[in-house]
Each structure stands twice: as structure tokens, then as C-alpha cells.
Design goal:
This protein is mostly helical. It is built from 16 helices and no strands. α5 runs antiparallel to α14 (354-382).
Amino acid sequence: MTQPPPSEILIERARRRTFESYGEPRFRLHQASWVTSSLAMQMAQLARPWLAFELSDSALMLGVVAASQGMAQVIAAPFGGLAADRLPKRTVLLVSQIALLAMVSLMAALVAFDAAEVWHLALLAMVHGVAVTFNNPVRQAFIPLLLPRRLLANGMALHNGARSLNQIVGPAIVGVLLEIELSIAFFVIVGLHMTSVVFSTRLPRGLPEPGAGRSVAGELMYGLRYVAGHKVLRIIVLLSVCATILVHPYPSLMPVFQKNVLTVGESSLGLMFASVGLGALVASFVIATFATWLTRSGLQLFAGFAFGSMVVAFALSPFYLLSLLTLFLAGAAAQVFSVANSTQMMYHADPALYGRVSGLNIWIRALMSIALLGYGALIDVFGAPATVATGGVVFIGCVVGITLAFPRFWRGTSASETH
């Protein structure tokens, strides 16, 4: 029997290594639920700020809607992570999915009857924020239960890669639908959330680890003290906070760049979001293939530097095609940075605290929505390019400062070796 060429053998081995976690049936089911849900959320992530800006023609009002979601997340995130640790994970997931479904159904009805106002969007964004703070931590906390430890980094990369794929597909679809009919876009989002609920019902119960008899407040404080007392988790959290406040808000501000800076149409806005997603998707496949890279702190810091640099380049770009290129590179760098953060958190955390550690990550990301309020006000005064570029420069300074202040962190060979 003729052997295939060596190049084909290498490609097949790389393919198997990249998608190895999909060999686990329960992980595939988990991802089917996640893909449909995240696709719906990515579509809403474009449609809601676009509608807010259309209704108000103000970057400040766009920031108010985003900040409403962020404030709800800041309040609810610790409880979402605790619920993922102390309650059956499937129950937490289903309740949060049904809440998201109810929220987008009401939004679709308001749009269909031409009754939507900015305060509606802000109120529903708060509901969305609460639901997400329960939904995302429990999804991440599920992954270590569905995969052996050796596949954890691969599974995390594929999990984030699915979201990146949806950053391409979702905005591309909703950008076209916004030009056809706004209500159709929201009803498609409703259908995707319904599909995700069906998949979620087939997941295992995910019973919690035995508790220590602490009160709710005691459990929350225990989780915070655990992270604060962990020498590596402290640095990861610091990096996440800097990125969230200074550079992660830029995708939500793209409607301002689309309309006021680049002066292109709504379908072009969809391509801008899709460029970010394509960069993140390519990065996801690379890091899924070479998953052990995610445990190396030096890669995390390099990706952070590259992320800040590309955000600055996007903010200062006067040309649409150049903006698409910088968005692609920013999406790739952000993906490596974010997945490395999440993976290292899971490698270091006690299994009984997976939900709270993931919830802390969600809490940090919630700061992005609040930061958008400040960004919106600054953009109305100084303009979008100067404001976003300044945030990128300050973030680069933070990465360099952390690199110099904590040399043992970035020189560490792997997360599993730095306890």
C-alpha cells in the first residue's frame, strides 16, 4: 500500500492536534451550545451599539448603553462565579440562557413595533449584563470537567476560537441584515438563543465540589483572598485590568470610526468587526495546535505589547483597507493575550474555585463597558483617533512596566512550574 507523502502526514497530524478536544463527545455538545449562543451575542454586540448611535448620534449615549451592561456585570459577576462553583452547572447555564432569550425577544419586539429608545437599550443591556455574568463563568468552569488536563489548553483555545469565528460570521450577517431590516436581525438573534437552550439541556449536570460550609459572603471573600494571595494570579489579574480599561473597548467604538472617521457604510462596519474576528480565529487555530505556548508568560506579555501597538495603528489609520489590516492584527494579538490569560488562570486555580476565577475574569471585562462611558465623553471632546490611540500607548507602557517589575513572571517556562 502506497504511503502518503510526508507533507500530508504532517498536515494530518497537525489537524488532529489542533482539534483534539473535539474527540470528546461531551465537549462537542458543550461547544454546540456555546457556538449558537456566542453567535447571537456577537450579532447583538454590533446591532445594539449601532442602534444606540442611530437613535442618539452621540458617542456618549453609545457609552451609556455599554456602561449599563458593565455596571450590571460589576455587581453580578462575583455571584455568577460563585453559582458556577456551588450549584449544578447545567442549571446555572440554562437559567442564564433563558434570561438572554427573554431579553433579546423583548428587544426584537420593541424594534418590530418601532418603539425602541435609548433608555430601553440601556435597561435591556443591564439584563444582558447580569445573564452573561452567570453564563460565561459556568461555560468556562465546565471545560475542565469535560476534558482531561492535558487537553485543557487546547480546549480553551478552541472555545475561544469558536467565539472568534462568530466575530467573523456574526457581524458579516448582521451588517447585511441592518441594511435590509433591523427587526429581522433581532429575530435571527432570538432563534440562535433558542437553539443554544436546546443544546444546553443535554449537558451533564456538573455537580459542584463539596463545600466548606461557608456563607455566601464567606465564599466570595475566600475566592478574593485566594486570588490576592496567589503570586502569579495577581500579575495575570493586573494585566487583564490594564487591557480591559485601556484597549479592549475599541471594538465597541467602531461605529464612531465607521461613520465619522472612515465614512463608510453599515456593511463595511460588518467587515471591520469581521476583520477582528478573522485575526482572532487564525490565532486560535495556531495556539490550539501549539497549546503549550499558552502556559508561557513571555508569550502573554509579547502579545499584550502587540495588541496595544495594533490598536494605536488602527486609531491613527486614515484609510479603510489599512484599518482592516490593523484590525486583523489587533484581533490576533488580543486573542493570544486573552486565551493565555484564561488558560493560565485555569492552570493555577484550585478546581473548587474555577467558577469564581472565571467570574473574576468576567468582572474585569465588565470594566470595559464602564470605561466606554469615559471613552465616549473623551471622544466627543478630543475625537476618536486621539482618544483610542492614547489608550493603546498607555497600555503598552503598562506591559513594559509589568515586564520590568516582575522579571520572574515573564521568564517562567510554564504556568504549571511557577506555583
